[in-house]
Amino acid sequence: MGNATWKQMVTTAIIGAMGGCIFYLGSLPLPWLLGSMTMLVLWQGIYKRKLSAPKYLKNIGFVLVGMYFAFFVTNCPNRTLAANSL
Length: 86
Known about the structure:
Elements: H1 3-25, H2 31-47, H3 55-73, H4 77-84
Helix pairs in contact: 1-2
């Protein structure tokens, strides 16, 4: 990865964390998910700059979000995760 990619990745993480903090302090629902997505969309729309993250980090994020939502759907999330773990 070049320097520009690292700068984009760090900028993405900082902007996402700021959005999560704002939503958390505002007691809005799903602050670390919706806050970071909202802030990143606004940032890219306003400043027209490209933000990025490596594909493996995106995939890890999708897995974590999927597990997070699974906790609200299943009756026994711990048993479900233990039965399906690798």
